[in-house]
Structure formats: C-alpha cells, structure tokens
User: Fold this.
Amino acid sequence: MAARPAIASAFAFAKDIKKSKNVRARDFVEAGEYRAFLVALKARLEYSHAFQSIDVDGKRHIRNNQNRHQNDQGDGRISLKEFLGAQHMIDAWVGKLEDPEAEFRQMDADSGGTVSFYEFCDWATRRHLGLDSYDSKAEAQEFEI
Ligand SMILES: [Ca+2]
Ligand SMILES: [Ca+2]
Assistant:
C-alpha cells in the first residue's frame, strides 16, 4: 500500500491547525501540530486502505503501462461505477446512503467525474468514516489555539 498520499494529506491537514504569525512556519508541521499530524496520519492510512478497496478498476490500464509495483491497485481514482459497486462496504462504514449518486457528486469536489484520494479524505472526515473510533477533526481541535 502506498503511504505517500496519506502522509501528504495528513501533513496538509496538520500544518494549518496552529494559525502561526510566522508565514514561513505555515508551510511546516510545528511542535504543537505534531500529535495532530500523527492522529490524522493514522486516520488517513485507514482511509487509504478503504479507498483502495473501492478503487478496483483501472488495473488493466496500469498493467499496459508495465508499472509492476502498482499491479494490485486501481488507477488512483474512484469512478461512480466503483462507488456504486462498493455500496455494501460504504453502508457498513457510514450507514446506509439515501442517494449514493448524489453522495458521489458531493464527494467529487472539483466535478471532474472521479473522486481522488484527497476528495475521499475530505468526505471520510466529514462523514466520520467508521473504520475506527478515531475522529481526527475532534482530536485536532484539542490543539487549536
Ligand atoms: Ca478506479
Ligand atoms: Ca474529483
């Protein structure tokens, strides 16, 4: 499992928690943000696992590119078809969705027709994706000044 997107997403989340007066410090995870970063990272590694269980299409495309280390993964995007095909998992994580297609359109923040890992993380945080008892936002608020 590739951890890089999870790390990047947790980093982006944690670095802005403390509203630092030092503009340059805003680009870094500072001392007071480190624990929030770790908590966010844990959640996002779980989101990454969830994302990859939904992102099952696109394997052939990647094989054609002979990108061997990604052979067992999808194309890094969730399509509507994949999302609808994974309803049983999603229902178990967030509860039964009334209108899965509308939910998908909401997840797809840039309206590009597919859901990226970052869009998925935003959605999962909003929806309190129930993979674990952790709520990274609530945890992170502890560190807000
Ligand atoms: Ca896909
Ligand atoms: Ca999108």
Observations:
- The chain has eight helices and no strands.
- The mean pLDDT is 83.
- The two ends are 35 Å apart (CA to CA).
